[in-house]
Amino acid sequence: GRGGGPTGAAILAQPPGTLQGRIRLTEQGEVLAHKYALPALATRSLEQVVTALASALWRDEELGGKDAPRPRGLPAAWAERMERMAEASHRAYRELVEDPDFMAYFRQATPIDVLEKAPLGSRPARRGGARTLDDLRAIPWVFGWTQSRHLLPGWYGVGSAVQAVLDGEGEEGLRQLQRMAREWPFLAGLLENLQMALGKADMAIARRYAALVEPAELGRRVFGRIEAEFDLTRRAVLALTGQQDLLEQQPHLRRSIVLRNPYVDPMSYLQVELLRRWRRGDQEEGLLQALLLSVNGIAAGLRNTG
Questions:
Q1: For 177, how many CA atoms within 13 A lie in the half-sphere containing its CB?
Q2: Which region among 4-8, 16-20, 144-148, 208-212 has the lowest average model confidence (pLDDT)?
Q3: How high is the pLDDT of residue 146?
Q4: How confident is the model at residue 105, as a pLDDT?
Q5: How many CB atoms lie within 10 A of CB 150?
Q6: What is the mean pLDDT of residues 278-298?
């Protein structure tokens, strides 16, 4: 889902021997004020990066320094299991996006047509004039799914990946995945990012966007597939982390989402109605401007835009 997770966790998730005292990060424009606008915030943000980098260097020295095999200490069975999960996840994701009707769903169940007219970003939403998935840039792809509360690129396929392990290894596979989640910083960081995406997604609101799709049967079919994978992924994350609900181990983020959603949700409902009017050719003055304002409001509320 193009980042958005804790920087410290991302640094510690790097394989041993890859950092060697330096790292280059790209900060998305929308987080600059949140992390650097005030001296105290900037100091805290930089301290988190330096602390994580120092911790990673200390860990790497314990594992043998820059000459250590990569990734040293990672059981072969873990790597093999992750390879199988990656294959299953990739297969599930490609099966969805390569559905012949999928682009019709994307264009109608997200405000991508509004984003293409928005004075945002340094480049056009598309590389050329074609309305294909290959032609679409990454940022509007993620932005569109975020606006419609699907947040699909950040989690789709994970449930299928975990289910593949359970189908092949049963309860023992689950126990091994739980151990991997506890002891492997890479997987722990991945699960943190997943929970953020799942926590900000809202299938009840996403269903409202899916209802904009014509023909209606197409919208119901594709959304049903997305919702089923969402439920599977949510159950998988809870099983691996041992939590009763998402973000239990990230209470500050969970509280932030709970506090912001009551302000974001009405804007989502409003955007759905504005999209319906705009697409049927309503010439009401200011309609497009209202849509653009709803885009800005939802982006500011969710904070992960793409």
A1: 29
A2: 4-8
A3: 94
A4: 97
A5: 28
A6: 91
Q: What's the alpha-carbon Rg for the chain, to the nearest Å?
A: 21
Are 46 and 7 within 8 A, CB to CB?
no
The pLDDT value given to residue 128: 59
Fill in the amino acid letter for 192: E
pLDDT tens digits for range 192-248: 989 999 999 999 999 999 999 999 999 999 999 999 999 999 999 999 999 999 999
Q: What is the dihedral of CA 163, 168, 174, 175, to 10 degrees?
A: -170
Q: What is the DSSP string of the chain?
A: ----S-HHHHHHTSPTTS-TT-------GGGHHHHHSSHHHHHHHHHHHHHHHHHHHHHHHHTTGGGS-TTTT--HHHHHHHHHHHHHHHHHHHHHHTSTTHHHHHHHHS-HHHHTTSS-SSS-SBSSS--STTTB-HHHHHHHHHHTT--GGGTTTHHHHHHHHHHHHHHHHHHHHHHHHHH-HHHHHHHHHHHHHHHH--HHHHHHHHTTSSSHHHHHHHHHHHHHHHHHHHHHHHHHHT-SSTTTT-HHHHHHHHHHHHHHHHHHHHHHHHHHHHHTT---TTHHHHHHHHHHHHHHHH----
Average pLDDT over residues 251-269: 93
pLDDT at 57 over 90: no
Q: What does residue 80 show for φ and ψ, rounded to 5 degrees?
A: -65, -40
